[in-house]
Amino acid sequence: MTGDSEMRNDSPDDSDENGVIDVAHYRRLVKMFIDMRRYQTALFWAEKVCVLSENDPKDVYCYAHCMFLLKEYHRAAHLIRRFQLEKTHVSSYNLLLESLYEAKELNEAVSVINNIDIEFLASSLISQPLDSANVDCHSTLNAEEANKNEVLASINFMKGKIYESLDNRGLAMDYYVQALHKSAYCFEALEALVQHEMLMAWEEKDLMEHLPLVQHSSETDAKFIKKLYESKLKKYYEDIEHATGDHIIKDFSECIKKTLESDVHLHKKFMTPQIMSPANKVLVDIKNTPFSLHISLTRASSLINESNRSHMETPGRERTKEIDSKNVLPLATCLNRIQKSTDIMAAEAEKLFYDCEYKKSYKILQELLKADPYHNAALTLQIGCLVEFGDYNKLFYVAHKLVDRYPDKAISWYAVGCYYDLIGKSDPARRYLSKATSLDRLYGPAWLAYGHSFAKENEHDQAMAAYFKATQLMRGCHLPLLYIGVECGLTKNLELAEKFFAQAMAIAPLDVFVLHELGVIKYEYEYYKSAEEVFQRTAEIVKARAKENKEELSVRWEPLFNNLGHCCRKRKKYKEALSYHQYALLLKPQSPQTFTAMGFVYALMGNLDEAIIYFHKSLAINRDCIVTTTILKTCIEDVMNEETVIEDICGRDFSGTTSSSSSKSASKRLPTIEESPAKFNCVKLKFDEEDSAANSQDKSDSNVVMDISMDL
């Protein structure tokens, strides 16, 4: 009986050993667990599949992929290198680069890039047949087999990120362009080029013209993709030919160029010694950029193998074969519906932001943030609008919410820094803005705001250091150049300031802030005619935009019209000067600087009574102004020296005074412009310099919000 029972117990063991295990079933389980984001479970079964398949390359890839999803980057990189899959497997090569990048092993990643020719590796695998047995389990790997261009685009994008992290922006831009040429759907590459301000506006448009959209998709899809991508391009000026005030803009650039050239020979007395200062080095670097878009486009086109662009390998064309009538939409309908996309709405808000239409921009942002409260680009613009409005309560709420949700993101601490800067606490503002730059050193708006925190306290060297860094990171943005020029002007380095403004104008020709600052430099050079012309053209653009939007001019343009008044006064056009000062007073009533300027014009015209009235108005608002007090004292002394005033005070009756003598006395009291008191013409207008510097400083402060869009 015992032997029979032993025989009965042995038989099930034999049957179990004779059974089979379906490894493909466990591969499907791994994919299912990955889709369900149960990465630890997926990792457990992926390791068992590797053992069962005796380390099949595709199973090892899945195993390493699970490690990557669990953020075990060093472990994933070690596994791939252990089996040397990066030399034989394109997707493993891509995963290795991603793992090393996330692990901050950038030098190791560069070593992998230099040691392995990925183009040769990809071409050697093109003729390999698909493994139909693993279609369901290895969808990612089959993407490599079905369309290697997509994988190569991903690899080029990773190379670009690696080199950008190493501050080799020339190579980074080159790889991003190659990624877009490998796959027109690689949006991340375009975003890196645009959001990191790597390209000039004309380079972005040139890139759009040369993208192989038709080769990668149908003609209709190409139009749709191009429309989406163009919404991401720079918003400084769009469709200049169709802009409002066409007659203003047509000859504007030529006029400014002639103005710059006509004054070159007069700069000698203002020139500073030419040394290789950091500012001069930045200008040299801008002119001698190592990156050429034309060369990158040529190289990218040469790397594309036309034989790989078959209908089987092009995702857009392959999709047309499996078309479903239920999913077909006319292009016009798609373009209409896509306007509700949060990205398109953010792009429109950014355009309005750069046009200084902050209320309209904020209205769009409010609608957008209801649908997506944490849209990164929208939040950056929202912070900028709140700074512009001075709404520190709302900004505090936004910053607090972001720090709670995303303490590891640069934008959170950027919002906190902007809040403290807005309420006038520079030290905590710098501390938090510095933290934002350390979390993401490619985040340009944080660098600009960091520079503003120093500029507000006249710490020019520290401010310029931050702006220099922003210039390196934001090659295609005019704002760092503008702010460097402002700081150079404040330190009386006029020649260098003008060069930076010229560079800023080359990027954004119609930016009114750049034009205004250029006019200030012309005024400092004592080129009053040129300064007046620049200010006048700037005012025309500002008025044209306000008229187009059916809005009143913002108070921010008060310095512009005051500066126009100063130029007219210097050219003895006193009536025009008064009209501009009165316009500025409408924009900003109760401005002591404007009252002082008007009083001085009246004094030069010989109307001392009116001058004294306006000087008193100015001192009623700002009684500590030494300049106004000094000029007022001079005016009162001149009035007291007149015989008619002495007569009124003393009550003396001068008999025998003829009408001719009284008319002579009247003419003495109200001299013509030619007979204006010489002492007023010789007075050093210190408040002119203060206004110019204040305008530059106010300009810098008011432009704090301009830097927020780098995301604008």
UniProtKB/TrEMBL annotation:
<dbReference type="GO" id="GO:0031145">
    <property type="term" value="P:anaphase-promoting complex-dependent catabolic process"/>
</dbReference>
<dbReference type="GO" id="GO:0045842">
    <property type="term" value="P:positive regulation of mitotic metaphase/anaphase transition"/>
</dbReference>
<keyword id="KW-0131">Cell cycle</keyword>
<dbReference type="Pfam" id="PF12895">
    <property type="entry name" value="ANAPC3"/>
</dbReference>
<keyword id="KW-0677">Repeat</keyword>
<dbReference type="Pfam" id="PF13176">
    <property type="entry name" value="TPR_7"/>
</dbReference>
<dbReference type="Pfam" id="PF13181">
    <property type="entry name" value="TPR_8"/>
</dbReference>
<keyword id="KW-0833">Ubl conjugation pathway</keyword>
<keyword id="KW-0498">Mitosis</keyword>
<dbReference type="InterPro" id="IPR019734">
    <property type="entry name" value="TPR_rpt"/>
</dbReference>
<dbReference type="GO" id="GO:0051301">
    <property type="term" value="P:cell division"/>
</dbReference>
<dbReference type="GO" id="GO:0005737">
    <property type="term" value="C:cytoplasm"/>
</dbReference>
<feature type="repeat" description="TPR">
    <location>
        <begin position="558"/>
        <end position="591"/>
    </location>
</feature>
<feature type="repeat" description="TPR">
    <location>
        <begin position="592"/>
        <end position="625"/>
    </location>
</feature>
<feature type="region of interest" description="Disordered">
    <location>
        <begin position="690"/>
        <end position="712"/>
    </location>
</feature>
<dbReference type="GO" id="GO:0016567">
    <property type="term" value="P:protein ubiquitination"/>
</dbReference>
<keyword id="KW-0132">Cell division</keyword>
<dbReference type="GO" id="GO:0005680">
    <property type="term" value="C:anaphase-promoting complex"/>
</dbReference>
<keyword id="KW-0802">TPR repeat</keyword>
<dbReference type="InterPro" id="IPR011990">
    <property type="entry name" value="TPR-like_helical_dom_sf"/>
</dbReference>
<protein>
    <submittedName>
        <fullName>Cell division cycle protein 16</fullName>
    </submittedName>
</protein>
